Each structure stands twice: as structure tokens, then as C-alpha cells.
Amino acid sequence: MSRDLRIAVVGAGFAGQGHAFGFRNAQMLPALEGVKVIMDTLVEPNAALAETVAAKYGFERIASSIDEIIERPEIEAVSLALPNNIYIDVVPQLLRAGKHVFCEKPLGLNAEEAAELTRIAEEAGVVTSVGFCRRRVPALAAMAQVIADGGIGSVHTFRASYFADYASDPRSPRTWRFQKDIAGGGAVADIGAHILDTVRFLVGDIEAVTACQLDTVIKERPLPTGGTGHNQGASATEVAPVDNDDNAVVSLRAKNGAIGVVSLSRIATGITDVFAIEVYGDKGWAKFESPHSDEFYLCQPEQSAPGLDGPRQIIAGPAFPYFSDVACMAGRGVGTGYGENMVAEIQEFCAAVVGQGEVTIPFAEAIPTMAVIDAAMTSARTGTEVPLA
Ligand SMILES: NC(=O)c1ccc[n+]([C@@H]2O[C@H](COP(=O)([O-])OP(=O)(O)OC[C@H]3O[C@@H](n4cnc5c(N)ncnc54)[C@H](O)[C@@H]3O)[C@@H](O)[C@H]2O)c1
Questions:
Q1: Closest CA to ligand 1's atom 24
Q2: 300 near 281, Cβ under 8 Å?
Q3: Is the CB of 45 under 6 A from ligand 1?
Q4: What are φ and ψ of residue 77, in 5° steps?
Q5: Is the CB of residue 118 less than 8 Å from the CB of residue 364?
Q6: Each residue of 98-136: pLDDT tens digit?
Q7: CB under 8 Å to 344, separation ≥6 — which residues?
Q8: Is the minimum distance from the CB of 366 to ligand 1 under 6 angstroms?
Q9: Given the CA of residue 338, which atom of ligand 1 is nearest to it?
Q10: Tens digits of per-residue pLDDT, 237-270?
Q11: Are 325 and 347 in contact (CB under 8 A)?
């Protein structure tokens, strides 16, 4: 096949730059051989940021609103990385214009918005995908496969966490992430979306949030004074309230009967970004921690010689999902990281757009994860178990 694929990225902040990185490297996927991914337009209202990011990733044009990409049918595919409350306004316009859409997580403010976006996408008959990039970590994807194949037996419990310190400084500005009407939940929706999706990926669908605690430790923050993302300046005199959670503890019961806890913090001083999950079954256990993202630990006592039954460190390599399509040198132990995860998710999206495969995380797949976030917030408010539909 030989063809062009013109794309646009909407939002040039933290995650939008990740998308640009993904599109720039998408052609490493064999299914995209002969497909020329053209970085057509970067849509970003912050002109200075738009200039910098467009130059860095080689976009042909800059636009300040999506109107300019809607009116150009040659742009086939669009990715979005915006404050969460904007998706419900912007994504339907793109879908109805026939664009294939890759949207960041969380997919809107709640499950209702995710379902509405899914419905409109299905009506439009376009390809959709959601940025649950953790599913593209080769070691985590391989661990999911081992569990699905019964490698640790019947799963009965799990323990997961996501700790970060991007919000640990009380002097950092109250950006959109700290406002419930723009972001929805705090840690529970932001980093929580990733780890709750990972629980579903490894353990299965969730039957109920049995309990949840949400806590806002830093109750007010200075107003932003301009700039981008977490790097915005902060007012020395004016503050505003934070009305979503810094910390969360969510207790879950999966449909297969497994129970577990997910702990979250965005103010874990000194822990820059650590994402971890342990899954226990009746024949062993498996564990992943993001600072060692190219490995997982697998313990299968029945398959070990007597007395030599400890966990094995399994290193990612070409036998694992995604690895050969994203690694700069496709050799075991060479390593992959966040950038490669972004490449893998964008590769799959582009391949589906040009008819060379299916996406594994269409919009519909985000609805149950959004429902867990909603249920966690309800449980925290009511103090009761909240079953999922
Ligand atoms: N998958 C991941 O690992 C990951 C990481 C970070 C963020 N995210 C998600 O990405 C989204 C954006 O987060 P971020 O950290 O990049 O935020 P950010 O604040 O760094 O960037 C958002 C950008 O959107 C721009 N913007 C606002 N309204 C716009 C509009 N109508 N049209 C075009 N651009 C507009 C802003 O000017 C800003 O530059 C969120 O949904 C977040 O949950 C995902």
C-alpha cells in the first residue's frame, strides 16, 4: 500500500506532545509500511506553545480552533489532549465531520459522557481509540496475557497503586486539574483512570466499588498566572479552592469474584510517577512496577523445582506485544518507556484508520472504566457500596 495519512493533534500540552511523538514514529509498524503519516495541523490556542511544538514535531500548520480542521476533508484522523470537560463539545463535531478520533483519557467527565461520545462515534462509523497507553507497555501486556492464559490460576485478589508528586507543592498553581467542573475527579480520575483501566485489563470487569475514601489535603492553591500545564506561573497573592481529591483509596470487587484495593496520590512528595499492580491467583502471582517498566515478576511455585520456587524476573523483548514495533533496537533488554507506549497506541489507531487492523481500545471500552470512577466518587460521598450496571 502506498498512501498519505494526514493527521491533526488538538491540544499541545503535556499529552498532546506525546501524541505528536507517537504520530512521528508511527511508521515503525510493519502494517503501516507505505503509509506516509503527514503532521498536518496542530490546534492549540496558546500561540507561543503552538509555535514551539509545531516546530519540534514538524507540523505543516497551526490553528487556534478545530473549525480549521473540520473544513479540510483531507485531514482523516485527529487526536485530542484537552482539559477533560472539553471533549463532550469538541469530539462530536469531529466525529460528525467524518474524522477518525483518538481521544485522551478520561473520556469526558463521566460514564454518561463516554457513552454519548461512543454513540455518536458508532453513528458516524469512524475509528475511535482512547489513550489508555499503559495497556501498551510490553511487559504489562505480556503479564496480562499470562494471567488470561491461567498462568497464576484463578485470580482472587489484587493490589494496585499510582503515586505521583506533580501536585505535591502547595505553591503550584490551581490549573484545570484541580477544578471538579473541568477535570471531574482529582487523582481518582486523572491517574486513577490509568490504573483502574489496568485493573480491568489484568483482572477483569468490576462488579462493585465496595468503599472509597477521597481526600483533599491541599485545600487551596494560587491562581495560575499564565504559561502551560504544570509549568504555569502562580500568583503570589490570590488563591482559589481545590474541589477534587489529592488522595484516594478505592476498594473493588471484580465480576470474577477477585477483590482488591487501588491507592492513589497526586501529592506523594518525592515519588515522581510510580504505577504498580500485583495480582494473586491460586497458583501464583505476578507483579509490575513502572520504574522497571521492561520487566515483570512471575511466581509459579508448581512449575519450579522444590526449594527454588521464588519469583522470576521476566525481561521484555521481541516475544512481547508491541516491543518490536516500537523499540529502537528490537533486542531483549534494550528497553522501552512512556514514549514507546504512546507510539504503540498511535500505531494501532493509524493502522485501523488505513484499514490494516482493529483498535483494541475503542471509545466503548472506556465506558466501564469511567463507570468505576463515577462509582468511586459516589461511594466516597454516600459511604456505601456502589454496584456497577
Ligand atoms: N495518557 C497519558 O499518560 C496522559 C498524560 C497526561 C495527560 N493526559 C490527558 O490528556 C488531556 C490533557 O492533559 P495535559 O496534561 O496535556 O493538559 P495540559 O494542560 O498540559 O494541555 C492542555 C492543552 O489544551 C489546550 N486547549 C485548551 N482548550 C483547547 C481547545 N478548545 N482547543 C485546542 N486546545 C485547547 C491548552 O491551551 C493546553 O495547551 C487530559 O484529558 C489528561 O487526562 C493523558
A1: 11
A2: no
A3: yes
A4: -130, 140
A5: yes
A6: 999 999 999 999 999 999 999 999 999 999 999 999 999
A7: 133, 136, 322, 325, 326
A8: no
A9: 3
A10: 999 999 999 999 999 999 999 999 999 999 999 9
A11: yes
Would you say 99 and 75 are in contact if contact means Cβ atoms under 8 Å apart? yes
Task: Tell me if 189 CB under 6 Å of ligand 1.
Answer: no
Confidence of residue 232 (pLDDT cuts 50, 70, 90): confident
The C-alpha angle 127, 133, 138, rounded to 5 degrees, equals 115
185 lines ligand 1 (CB under 6 A): no
By residue count, the chain amounts to 389
All cell numbers assigned to 175: 490549573
Q: Tell which residue, 239, 247, 73, 83, has the closest CA to residue 171.
A: 239
User: Nearest Cα to 14, choosing from 133, 170, 112?
Assistant: 133
Protein residue whose Cα sits closest to atom 26 of ligand 1: 11
* Ligand 1 mean position, distance from CA 229 (Å): 8
Residues 162-197 pLDDT 10s: 999 999 999 999 999 999 999 999 999 999 999 999
Q: How far apart are CA 372 and CA 253, in angstroms?
A: 11
Report CA(110)–ligand 1 centroid distance (Å). 17
- Distance, CA 84 to ligand 1 centroid (Å)? 8
pTM (two decimals): 0.97
Rg (CA), the chain: 21
